[in-house]
Structure formats: structure tokens, C-alpha cells
Description:
Strand order of the largest sheet: 2-5-1-6-7
Largest sheet: 5 strands, antiparallel
Bound molecules: zinc ion
Shape: globular
Number of helices: 4
Number of strands: 7
Amino acid sequence: MSIKLxxxxxxxxxxxxKTGLRIGGTGxxxxxxxxxxxxxxxxxxxxxxxxxxxxxxxxxxxLELKYGKIESDGKPHKYCGDSNCxxxxxxxxxxGDQKDVTLGPSRLIVRxxxxxxxxxxxxxxxxxxxxxxxxxxxxxxxxxxxxxxxxPRQMERVPAGVNFELDLVYRVFDTGDGGKTDxxxxxxxxxxxxxVQEDALGSSGSRGYGKVEFAGLKLIQNDGTEKPFNL
Length: 231
Ligand SMILES: [Zn+2]
């Protein structure tokens, strides 16, 4: 059995924030005078970005939920031994898993999504006018149920109206089927993006954060030809 890369597609477009988006920093970088709950930023430019791992994880978890691929303890799908499993093929497995060599590497690469030039300008203006560091700070209250005393906290968000560049690579491998399985599974990627649109990205989705829309998606082939990739 052998495995061979047939082609790779690029999927490009825009992720547009329809409501405030919050992808939290890990706290690994201490910000002086920062808010309680900072968002993740590029350390060199200080611009917010969407880590590829966050978007990939969201696409994966929504597809796992839809297709009943979650483990019985609620954990993410583990390598299941089926080399045709779309979750294992598209998203890959852990390095330690004993896997069939014909499974091959993960088909989907999700790059970090950076601000569009237009959004950089918009946020720069926002920073100069309002003194906000390319973000907004939302105050949220937890009310004590007995005393009604408010316990406010600050949540930093990317404001609604900001756009990021989407940049995905999807690879088609011939695992003895001429690449057909991976070609077919491209539909799962499309579906996963659609599910993200119907759900939310980042934290506090159930409280209205993180509604995103994908726009102008296109599928670009190795020879540069492109066609619309509508959700
Ligand atoms: Zn699997």
C-alpha cells in the first residue's frame, strides 16, 4: 500500500465578525495595565487574530457532533481504526496513535487568520479616536441571586464589523482510490464552515458572542484556476 499526494486546494475568503468575537489569550503573556480577560493578539503587531487551531477545532467539533463521532465520555473523536473515517482523515490523529499508514497526514491545514487591510485601518482609527487597543471591552455582570449585588467583569472582544482573511489548504491523497475519498470529503469541509456560521466562534457563543459569516469563498487549484466555494 502506498499513499501519494494528488493535489492541494486553497480555500480563501473573508471571515466577518457579525457580533463581538472573543478568543481568549492563554495568559502566557502578561499585559501591563491590560483588561482582566484579554484576547489573543499577534505579539509583534498587537493586532488581534484568529488562531488556526481555534477555527479548526470548532469545525471539527461541530462535525463530530453532527455525525455522532464524539467519544462516549464527551472527549474528541480518537483514532478509530477506519482509514476511511472522515474525521480521522480530514483532521488527523494524535502523534502517539498506532495508525494504518494509509490513513496519511491530516488533509486540512487551517492557517491563522489575520485582519484584512481594511479592518486594520478601521481599528487603527478606532484606537486613535477612542484610545482602544484594536478591541472593545465589554462589561458583564453576574448578579448575586439573593442580594442582587452585581459582580462586574471585563471581557475584551474584537468588535463587530471586523474582517479576517480565511486561508485553508485541503490536500487530496491517493490511498488506492485515485483520491476519490478525499475529493468527496471536501464536502465535509464545506459543511463544517457552514456549521460554524450557524453556531459561533470563540467563547460565550450562547451569550451572543462570535457570530461569524464567511464571504467570497473560493476554491483555488494548483494551476491557479479558481471557482466559487459557496456554503
Ligand atoms: Zn475516526
